[in-house]
Amino acid sequence: IPLQFAGLADVSISEDIPVEGEITVPVGAQSPEEDFSTLDEPVKDTIMRDLKAVGKKFVHVMYPKKSSALLRDWDLWGPLVLCVSLALMLQGGSADSKDDGGPQFAEVFVIIWFGAVVITLNSKLLGGTISFFQSLCVLGYCVMPLTVAMLVCRLVLLVGAGTVSFIIRLIVVVAMFGWSTLASTAFLADSQPPNRKALVVYPIFLFYFVISWMILTFTPQ
């Protein structure tokens, strides 16, 4: 009994001819990147990889140049560490005084993060192409020179608080203020329309100026 398919009158399959076989769909071999998952690796490897990524961003800030490396893999771990470190060093109250330094820590913490958010919103409203968290990442990492300035100022104040001490601190703070401003604008300026770059740089200037002023006027109790 011949078997015929509709529309194929000239083609028939006899029952004497066995019809058997397999229908398989070729699937491309998965690349190693597709098989990669942080759930399958030791916690130590994950932490070390993240620390190396944070360290590379610090290097980019210390040697600022127009590069997308700081924007490509953004994170907020570095900015958080810098913010907490700066806020702790700016605490003026001692352990045995009535002022325990809590409000100063909160003020510094809020000023840094609130200022970074305002600058980021300003950048987005002016037509910036950078994402919200990328901008926070850049502004946070570029606080590192000012954190170094705060550390140097604390060491200088251990020696004395005279005129020479103030001049040294002034030079260090001004140099690090310029470094932070230049580093942040090197990453953020190209993401803005050419005719609006000044409107973006000016708030960044004020942001780091306020932090620099807090560092320069710091006097331990």
Strand-helix topology:
Blueprint: E1 3-5, E2 8-13, H1 32-35, H2 43-62, H3 69-72, H4 77-89, H5 102-125, H6 132-141, H7 144-159, H8 163-188, H9 197-216
Antiparallel strand pairs: 1-2
Explain the overall architecture.
- Keywords: Membrane, Transmembrane, Transmembrane helix.
- This is Protein YIPF.
- One of its GO terms (biological process) is endoplasmic reticulum to Golgi vesicle-mediated transport.
- InterPro entries: Yip1/4-like, Yip1_dom.
- It is found in: Golgi apparatus membrane; Membrane.
- This protein is mainly α.
- It has a domain at 72-91 and 102-217.
- Helices cover 62% and strands 4% of the residues.
- It contains nine helices and two strands, in the order E-E-H-H-H-H-H-H-H-H-H.
- It has helices at 32-35, 43-62, 69-72, 77-89, 102-125, 132-141, 144-159, 163-188, 197-216, and strands spanning 3-5, 8-13.
- It has a two-stranded antiparallel ribbon.
- Strand 1 (3-5) and strand 2 form a beta hairpin.
- Mean pLDDT is 74; it is low at 23-35 and 93-98.
